Amino acid sequence: WGPYEIPQWGTKSASWRGTPITWIGNTTISYDIGKTEYLSAAWRARAWLVALKYADRIITANSGNTNNFSVDFYQTPRASQLVSNTLANLLGDAVFRKDIRFAPYIRAWIFEDARKRPVAAVWCHKESVDSGTDKPPVASADFGGSLEAVIDLMNQERRFQTGRMDFPVMSAPLFFRGRPGTLRQMISAFEHAHLQGGSTLSPFHISLNPATPEYCLLTLENVLSGEFRGTAAGQHIRIPAQTKQTIRLPFREPLTADRILSCRFPLTIRSEEGASWPLKGLDFQAFYAKKVPDTVTLKSLDWNSLPRLELTNECLKKNDAYRAFYRIAWNTLGLFLEVSVKDSHFTHREFADQRKRWDNDSLQVYFDTLANARASMTDGYDDDDYDYAIHPDAGGRNCSVWRNRTADQQLTLGINAPKDLTIAEDIPTAFLRTREGYVYRIFFPGKYLLPATMKKGSVLGFGLTANNADDPALPYPKRRRNARSNATIPGKDCYNKPRLYPALLLWE
After folding, report:
1. How far is CA 201 from CA 142, 228, 499, in A?
2. pTM confidence score
């Protein structure tokens, strides 16, 4: 976590990949570093707090020190250097006592130091708060007369009032230290803390996926440390702390295999105390795939018997003549995919670096195997996602599968799991040239879609992008390139965007 974020120079604070990572030299370009210095210090503190929470089983913890541990002639410290000082002063002799979740995206970790003083570290880990696009939420807690000090990450004491206190929950941890022997009061204060009115953060982790073609299941996970009582979708709910409850919601029309259905569920959660939260981000698209016999192979499958869908989302440059269609089916052994492309000019340059071959006439196939991206608190891939690329050869005679990204081996085949950035020689493929263009056919064995299970009722996020590049050897911006995808937002492709994949229900 470096102190600089300069997109024009390719510098990125939170990255271990690429050159430069955070800064290309050991010099400091300015004292006026800005928000990134604050944010990198906050991230460092939050990482070290995890180590302190589990200090009974962690021998040592270290953070990368790129451009963070050099000082100037006057020995002026940087924010990241003060972090370790603050944590050591407050928690160096402390023991972790309790993890309290009084609101989503909020952490309140209670420690107790050697003098029997409780110390609470409180922060917000919502990405939009980190980036500054949202203001920090404001919390309210009643400490009675138990507080001794409120201390910020730079080890500075802040003014506070006894009794009930309102305070912002920021990216950088804020510390509340109680008087000796007041651990129980500190725990009670945060167990009964709440965000002030107007907060858009609901008390639930929410997921919504098809269960059958007729209805889907809304899952509400109470992320708080206390019971929630209220209503959702017209039903009374009572959900104990950190447990789940599901609600059946009918589709306005049944899912089919021959078109993508847009599903909208405008819902509001209301608590018994009168607070309400409109449930946002529940809209999604869905369809189902038909089952075929286990005896069917890539060659013997009657593809024309399967419904055909079109990739209608046009990405990058407009090209009305370029179109792509797909068919999909499954059995207990795996998943079949055919993509037929109308393209007047086939071309594929076999770059020496396999990772660059997607930037051709090519196909990219994505799986969110647990269909959980729309419910995630963060964007981008997680540990159960796959990113496959299908590359024809330059002559257009066959194609191969490139494993750009695979699911975590602990969710798949353990030490036998295939590696990222390898050619999948054991995934069957076929590539056919036609009068109008070309056709890809791929069979993904079930073991290479784990942790998804090939059975009726399973749901996967399924992303698909067909790329077209008539002149891949030309440099940008002379290269003419466009693509078609099934991403749920117009103009978007599917790379690293599992939240935008339609839900694929395995049915019969």
Report:
1. 21, 14, 19
2. 0.78
